[in-house]
Amino acid sequence: MAGFRSLARQVRDPRCDLALRRYSLRKCLERFAPYGHRATWDHLCGRHRIDPEDRAPDPARLVAALEELEEARAVWLAYEDNFADRRKREKHDGLRRPGHIDDWHRRTWGGNGVARCDTPTEHPSAPLAEVLRRLIGALEAEPGTACPVCSDTHIVWRQQLEHEPWSGPVCTGCGIVVPQPVLTAEAVSAAKRAGRRELASVA
């Protein structure tokens, strides 16, 4: 199975036909897709003006999309390195039980679904690397009451999400499933109340 860097080389290789280069970019998303595979693909296509169904897109646009993905991956890998170093220090100091952030981090190891978007067409518009920097900043700060990506405070608890976690707080501003560790207990409670009102209005 080809790794991310091998696939990235294929995306850049002018000797490969465009269908293979496009396919290789899609395969990169199986290794790293911050919003989830479909939402990250929709994001990259929108930002780099690639027709999602075009089997032979402009190679310059494919490479630009890859570069955005690579920059975001570098941001996330640096965070994971720091995270691993911190856990080693904590274990050395006798803190073996993982915390709340660790539980969330375990589900996103490798960068898949870091800022998962349950609806593939609803996702942040900012560059992926900037979104991840904002999210990491929130993970390293005190919990707050707003979405760490877009600062929207309208967060609604949704049931039956498509991926783990199967329920959670969703930002109605940018569409991400907000990691619970970045929200205060009061913000999570408010999101659950908003979710119950949403369900009642549908019923």
Automatic annotation (TrEMBL):
Entry superkingdom: Bacteria
Name this polypeptide is given: Uncharacterized protein
